[in-house]
């Protein structure tokens, strides 16, 4: 069960970083919460990456 939760979290993180959302997985009663948390973490990571790129390029 832990393995499936980690897989769902990782899938959410990848989708979040790509700006995607899989509604079927997100609404899954068993692993949807793990997916949604991963998706949020992926979006936050993408935001920080873009902010760092803008900082490096001097576009603050």
In short:
It is built from three helices and no strands. The chain is 77% helix and 0% strand.
Describe the structure.
The protein is an all-alpha fold. The protein is 77% helix and 0% strand. The chain has three helices and no strands. α1 (2-18) packs parallel to α3. The protein is elongated and about 45 Å long. The N and C termini lie far apart (44 Å).
As residue ranges, the low-confidence spans are none
Biggest sheet features = none
Q: Roughly what fraction of the amino acids lie in strands?
A: under 5%
Mean pLDDT: 95
Gyration radius, rounded: 14 Å
What is the number of helices? Answer: 3
Distance between the termini: 44 Å
SS-derived structural category: mainly alpha
Strands, helices and their partners?
Elements lengths: L1 H17 L4 H4 L5 H25 L4
What keyword list fits this structure?
elongated, mainly alpha, single chain, 60 residues
């Amino acid at each position: 069960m832990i393995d499936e939760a980690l897989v769902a979290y990782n899938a959410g993180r990848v989708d979040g970083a790509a700006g995607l959302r899989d509604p079927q997985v997100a609404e899954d009663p068993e692993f949807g919460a793990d997916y949604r948390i991963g998706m949020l973490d992926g979006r936050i990571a993408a935001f920080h990456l873009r902010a760092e790129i803008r900082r490096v390029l001097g576009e603050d």
